[in-house]
Amino acid sequence: MTQEVMTQPGEIIFHKVPVPQPGPDQVLVKIKRIGICGSDIHVYHGTHPYTKYPVTQGHEVSAQIVARGTYAKKYEIGQRVVIEPQVFCGRCYPCMHGKYNLCENLKVMGFQTTGTASEYFAVDESKCTPIPDNMTYDQAAMIEPLAVTVHAAKRFDVKNAKVVVFGCGPIGILLCQSLKAFGASQVLATDISDYRLELARKVGADFTVNTREHDFGKSLIESFGPDKADVMYDCAGNDITMNSAIQNARKGSTIILVAVFGKMANVDLAKLNDSELDLNTTMMYRHEDYVDAIRLVSEGKIKLEPLMSNHFAFTDYLSAYQYIDTHRETTMKVLIDVDPESDETD
Fold first, then answer.
1. What are the two backbone dihedrals, phi and then psi, of residue 287, each rounded to the nearest 5 degrees?
2. Where is 68: in which H helix or E strand?
3. Do 249 and 210 fall into the same domain?
4. I want to staple 196 with a disulfide (CB 3.0 to 4.6 A). Which of 168, 247, 307, 331 is the partner?
């Protein structure tokens, strides 16, 4: 079979390797689609702090089971699935208390261990989650990033809440939708791109503000009134957005960091303390978040198609990254068609 390998930043090769045999508790899946995310782009540029080369990528994935190991009996051959890419130890304190997304020895497929960017992939059956008949492989390849935002939305009781989302990249826009799906009354989204703000409005944001052109504090009050927001989510991950959240948050409210800061933060902790703000964080997802993400898409409460920017053939992986680099503002999600001949619901 063919397997993708990023040998060093900006360089991808394809080589032939044997089709893997599933272990006793594993299934063999045929990979259908792979999504490229922001962390993959960091690997492409050589700026991901926790990835070494060479590395086979691919962690946002849809697939179909084609073979099973001796003890893998939960799913039938032919079952359409998504894969949870976390590799955790199961023995550390977080794992033993149900928080394996915080495993002390956490690895993620495509970064610290082999990813799914190959025609076939052997994976523990426990990491597979079935998808319904009304879900396409394209949609299923976006369940992983959606699970990130589902987990984030559940970090605060957002029912009837007024919420700010800083940053309208794919995660920010998926979070806007997740928040509304979980009952948020109003969502204000910010960005410096009118294109991305318009997309956020199309899929459910009630208010948007281009913070390059308008004062966020004034826009916040214009949107929500003097009581401002109940919670703010930072999906941009920089000093500007985090300080804007701290300076404009209602005293005693909550800020949740979703994005990964690329460098040491320089933020106003004195103001954070003076306003008795709760600064919370969110990290990846757990199985229940995958289940909720699949359910919300199946019920039509999350729109994924507006975020699908382009498709590339498997062997055009490098071209996909080049496309993202040259269309950064208008690109949301690029999908790699590993099995382009497959019917969307076969």
1. -55, -40
2. strand 60-68
3. yes
4. 168
The answer as to whether 343 is a domain residue is no
Quick one: angle between helices 143-153 and 170-181, nearest 10? Answer: 60
Tell me, yes or no, if the pTM score tops 0.90.
Answer: yes
Residue with tokens 């507006």: 306
Average pLDDT over residues 107-133: 98
| 343 pLDDT above the threshold of 60 | no
**How much is the pLDDT for 261?**
87
Tell me whether residue 164 is in a domain: yes
Range of the domain at 20: 2-142+304-337
Number of domains in the chain: 2
What angle, 0 to 180 degrees and rounded to 10, lies between the N-to-C axes of helices 170-181 and 194-202?
30
In a domain, 51, yes or no: yes
Q: Give residue-wise pLDDT tens across range 56-104.
A: 999 999 999 999 999 999 999 999 999 999 999 999 999 999 999 999 9
The residue count of the chain comes to: 346
Which of 112, 116, 117 lies closest to 49, judged by CA? 112
Co-location of 34 and 116 in the same domain: yes
Tell whether 8 and 132 lie within a shared domain: yes
pLDDT at residue 344, as a whole number? 53
The pLDDT mean for the chain works out to: 97
CB contact at 8 A, 307 and 202 = no
For residue 140 the two structure tokens come to: 């299923």
d(CA 179, CA 79): 30
CATH number at residue 221: 3.40.50.720
What DSSP line would sit under 249-308, residue for residue?
SPTT-EEEE-SPPSS-----HHHHHHTT-EEEE--S--HHHHHHHHHHHHTT-S--GGGE
Element (H, E) at 173: helix 170-181
- CA dist 282 and 156 (Å) reads 10
Q: 3-state DSSP call for residue 319?
A: helix
